[in-house]
Design brief:
mainly alpha, two-stranded antiparallel ribbon, 6 helices, 2 strands, elongated, helicase, hydrolase activity
Length: about 120
């Protein structure tokens, strides 16, 4: 609701603009995200207390609730992305696999040569 409250002792009443109130009722609520971050100090304080249970603290936090609630949506997104990945058709896939294999062999040989050159036996 928007408007202006009356000034104490001066105004008899305040002013309210109902169109804003109607808009606030109709629109959805703002998203609320947890700002919980476990720090070392928080963990040590939990361990120091007799009844402290850091695992319970995490398990019952709003952050964990939001993470658990997001799992189903993330799994759905993962399934869609996997289906998209499986639908991709690469022409001459065998040639690409062969090229990648040769590239890996080249990298390994290059590292072997470097190791031989910089080995103590070769430097003498």
């Amino acid at each position: 609701m928007s408007g202006r409250a009356g000034r104490r002792g001066i105004d008899d009443r305040g002013v309210c603009i109902p169109s804003t109130a109607k808009m606030m009722v109709k629109r959805s609520a703002d998203c609320l995200n947890s700002a919980f971050h476990l720090s070392y100090n928080m963990l040590l304080n939990q361990l120091r207390c007799k009844d402290g249970d850091p695992e319970n603290l995490l398990r019952n936090s709003f952050y964990q609730f939001q993470a658990d609630r997001a799992i189903t949506d993330l799994e759905r997104q993962m399934k869609v992305l996997q289906e998209e990945r499986d639908a991709i058709h690469i022409e001459e896939e065998d040639s690409l696999e062969n090229y990648y294999s040769l590239l890996e062999q080249y990298k390994n040989l290059k590292m072997d040569v470097r190791d031989i050159i910089f080995s103590p036996r070769y430097c003498e």
